[in-house]
Design a protein that fits this description.
By secondary structure, the protein is an alpha+beta fold. Helices cover 43% and strands 18% of the residues. The chain is built from eleven helices and ten strands. Strand 5 and strand 6 form a beta hairpin.
Length: 301
């Protein structure tokens, strides 16, 4: 049920029994972000609304901060870009800065939520790292005790004022929170990860196959994915194209063999699936900035 279906139901922005919240003055937030802080994203608002019956917020002009809402019980809804989304227990809603929106509690089973506003230039970067969009603005952190603990930590910090030390502590806790969210962003309602296990399985397959010349199609088959989707997922999860990652694993193994054996470069190249030792040397130099012979002669600790 969205706001258009609420009819004559009461609509309350805040004031729920047992609610806790903390809000920083916007001048404090701006001054902090202008001071070149170590972590340039700050929680400007944070709260916990238990059983928030009739909860309703509408921002037709949007918010300059990223809005993150984690539903831990009950249900709610959100309307973004003309689309309405149901928010169920364990789900989290991510609303990017500058996007008009509305959200609220289900009138029959009102949600219990932790919520936080994240201010700073890295908010847009976080949206990209979470791999969400206006057509799919939800994640599934589940009933994550680590996430709840970080919400509670930020609530306590901001409830004790906004000294420089408090703001640093709040920014550090938020940094921990967003790092945790990025790491777990692909979880499904069953708790499993959509992509992590597949990527790990492919990397293990690569390590077992260092003497072979694998194709992107072979790696994708091992992940049970299409080649194009696998290539996209692998790069986003590791930072490297899959075949580049495979070559780097080969070069890592080459370093070990150069350091611990007297095998000639030609034999090492052959062991790693390179028929042409000159081509192997060029690939090695591209990764390590040295030829294999130069690398072997370097004094290492």
């Amino acid at each position: 049920m969205d706001s258009s279906e609420l009819g004559d139901f009461q609509k309350i922005r805040e004031g729920f029994p047992g609610q806790r919240s903390a809000v920083l003055p916007r001048s404090i937030v701006s001054t902090w972000l202008d001071s070149d802080p170590l972590f340039d994203m700050l929680p400007s608002d944070v709260g916990h609304y238990p059983h928030a019956q009739w909860h309703f917020v509408e921002r037709p002009e949007s918010s300059p901060q990223l809005v993150f809402i984690h539903c831990v019980d009950g249900e709610g809804w959100s309307r973004i870009n003309g689309n309405t989304f149901r928010i169920r227990p364990g789900q989290a809603l991510v609303i990017p800065p500058g996007v008009p929106h509305a959200y609220g509690a289900d009138p029959v089973s009102p949600w219990t939520i932790y919520w936080i506003h994240m201010a700073g230039p890295k908010a847009a970067t976080l949206v990209r790292l979470l791999e969400i969009g206006l057509s799919s603005p939800t994640l599934f952190p589940g009933q994550d005790p680590a996430l709840a603990a970080l919400f509670e930590k930020i609530l306590v910090i901001l409830s004790h004022g906004y000294s420089a030390d408090s703001l640093m502590a709040a920014a550090t806790a938020l940094h921990q929170m967003v790092t945790h969210l990025v790491k777990t962003r692909h979880q499904l309602p069953g708790g499993e990860d959509r992509h992590d296990e597949k990527v790990k399985r492919v990397i293990e397959f690569m390590i077992r196959s260092l003497g072979e010349n694998l194709t992107i199609e072979a790696l994708a088959r091992h992940a049970n994915m299409s080649a194009s989707h696998f290539a996209y997922v692998f790069k986003h999860r590791t930072g490297f194209p899959a075949l580049d990652y495979f070559v780097r694993l080969k070069m890592q193994r080459a370093c070990f063999l150069l350091d611990t054996t007297n095998l000639p470069v030609k034999a090492i190249a052959s062991e790693l699936g390179f028929e042409d030792p000159l081509y192997f040397s060029r690939r090695f130099r591209r990764v390590h900035d040295y030829s294999p012979i130069q690398y072997r002669s370097i004094q290492k600790g």
